[in-house]
Amino acid sequence: MAPSVTYLPDSVESDDDFDRILSSGLPIVLYLHGNLGTRGTYHRVDLYKVLTSLGYHVVALDYAGFGDSPGWPTEDGMAADARLVWDWIKTRGGESQRIYVWGHSLGSAAATLFVKRLCEEGNKYA
């Protein structure tokens, strides 16, 4: 039986929506995209739909310089962006929340550096 799927509304009025959904107990995929396009590129949205249908929440971000995020991408900056979102997910979903970091293409370098740093900090969830 397929898990219950919850999509966020088009507009979120408060953090309560995120808190409720991300603390539901379903695992979360932190998706770090490649160098072409943005977090909202059609083939990525299709992947999010597949993952969601399998019972995962998906949180995707645009690094500095991509999509609607200002600035210029750097290796350290992309890993820092991932860390910022990781911390945001942990705040919303709880410390024991299962988070899987998925990097695609360029995003795999950011994911590797980010998870390496988590491990060096002794993060027991990495």
What would you note in describing this structure?
Strands 2-1-3 form a three-stranded parallel β-sheet, with helices on both faces. The protein is globular and about 35 Å long. Helix 1 (15-22) crosses helix 3 and helix 3 packs across helix 4 (106-120). By secondary structure, it is an alpha/beta fold. It has helices at 15-22, 42-53, 75-93, 106-120; strands spanning 28-32, 57-61, 99-103.
List keywords for this structure.
globular; 126 residues; disordered N terminus; 4 helices; 3-stranded parallel β-sheet; single chain
Main sheet record:
3 strands, parallel
Distance between the termini: 29 Å
Structural class: alpha/beta
Order of strands in the sheet with most strands: 2-1-3
Radius of gyration from the alpha-carbon trace, in angstroms: 14 Å
Query: Could you tell me the number of beta strands?
Result: 3
Spell out the helices and strands N to C: HEHEHEH
In percent, how helical is the residue content?
40-55%
Shape: globular
What's the tally of helices? 4
Q: Name the average pLDDT.
A: 86
Percent strand equals 5-15%
